[in-house]
Each structure stands twice: as structure tokens, then as C-alpha cells.
Amino acid sequence: MLKIKNIFFIILIALISACSSIPKNTSNGCSIFNERYLWYKHAKSTEKKWGTPIYVQLAIIKMESDFDWLAKPQRQKLFKVIPFKRPSSSFGYSQAVKGTWEQYKNETGNKLATRARFKDSVDFIGWYTDKTESLLKISKKDAFRQYLAYHEGWGGYKNYKNNQKVIGLAKKVKNQSDKYKSQLQKCQKKLNKNKYIIF
């Protein structure tokens, strides 16, 4: 009986580790989904539900957390050496802050959503980009301006021209989005035919 419990525990740890570890090549959409086929299902579902292209979803996550499910902003330092509080409550794949995450859960009814789960994170990005399109008339395919609104917030978007740093980040998101789009065009048919769930 003890041996069976040990085997079950080892399998459980292996599954958790596989699900939570960062993909080996986060710059390649096909590589990501070859490792995490279930992620493709979630991203595809988000695309169908909200209309946000998979390549835009991936590009935002790449910039925000580089697919680290436990990502947090680095702590500020007192006197440049003493660790202090974090600059925001951003967390998880999407780096959503607590307040916006609560708004997402309330508006979608997804009460059990967690920022450390890929499925919920891409759904959050779909919800957010959908609201951005509605509020600011920015196409969900426009990775550059969508990211500006994602980073600065709907209220702060109008002032983005004064922030060269965020413009630089948005350009990187646009470039990465274009790369993901090109990559996925080469492997999406194969992914759509795959009936197996690979963690």
C-alpha cells in the first residue's frame, strides 16, 4: 500500500512540474504548443470566445512574464540594498494586478480563476483586449496599441506618447506577435488535427 502511495505521489509531482515549468523556447509559438498542447486548446478557445488572435495572446504573455506562472515584479530596494515592497500586485502569466483581476472575475463569473493558471490568464487577456477594443476602438489584431493599453490601463492609454519606455516595450510585443503569427501559420494545421493532450 505504501509503495502505491509513493508511486502516485511521484506521478503527481511530475505532472505538476510539467504543467508549471517554463517552455524551453518561449520565442517560438510552435515549440511552446508542442510542449504544452493543452495550452493551445486554451489559447484557441480564447480566440473563439473573445476574438483575440493566439499570436497576440502569446506576445503579451511573453513580454509580461516570459511564461513564468509565478512571475512577480522585483522588489524595490531601500538605500539600494535592503529589499522592500514590490511596485505593484502584478502576478502570474498575465501579470494582472489584483484589482483588474477581481473585475475580470466579477464580469465573467469566473470566480475560481487564478493568475497562476494559463487557461485563466489567456481568458483574462481575451477579456481585457475585448474591453480595449470596445472602449478605445483598438483592433484586437493591433498588438502594438493593445499592449500600450494593457500596460498603461484604459485610463492611462491617452498619455502613452509621453512614455518612450512603454512605446519601446510595445514595439517588442508587436515584433514578437508578428513572429508568432508567422510560426503558427506553419504548424497550426497540425495542432488542430492533434487529438491528444500533451502536458
Fold topology:
Elements: H1 2-20, H2 29-35, H3 37-50, H4 54-64, E1 77-78, E2 82-83, H5 98-108, H6 118-136, H7 143-156, H8 164-193
Antiparallel strand pairs: 1-2
Helix pairs in contact: 2-3, 2-8, 3-6, 4-8, 6-7, 7-8
How would you explain this protein's 3D organization?
The chain is mostly helical and 199 residues long. The chain has one domain: Lysozyme (Orthogonal Bundle), CATH 1.10.530. The chain has eight helices and two strands, in the order ααααββαααα. It has helices at residues 2-20, 29-35, 37-50, 54-64, 98-108, 118-136, 143-156, 164-193; strands at 77-78, 82-83. α3 (37-50) runs parallel beside α6 (118-136).
Briefly say what this structure is.
This protein has helices at residues 2-20, 29-35, 37-50, 54-64, 98-108, 118-136, 143-156, 164-193, and strands at 77-78, 82-83. With 199 residues, the chain is mostly helical.
Mean pLDDT: 86
How large is the count of helical segments?
A: 8
Instruction: Tell me the series of helices and strands, N- to C-terminal.
Output: HHHHEEHHHH
Specify the helix fraction band.
55-70%
Q: Which band does the percent of strand residues land in?
A: under 5%
Shape: globular
| CATH third-level topology | Lysozyme
Number of strands: 2
The major beta sheet can be summarized as: 2 strands, antiparallel
The name of the CATH architecture is Orthogonal Bundle
Number of domains: 1
Model regions low in confidence, pLDDT < 50 over at least 5 residues: 8-18, 75-79, 83-87
Taking all Cα atoms into account, the compactness measure Rg is 18 Å
Task: Give the CATH level 1 class.
Answer: Mainly Alpha
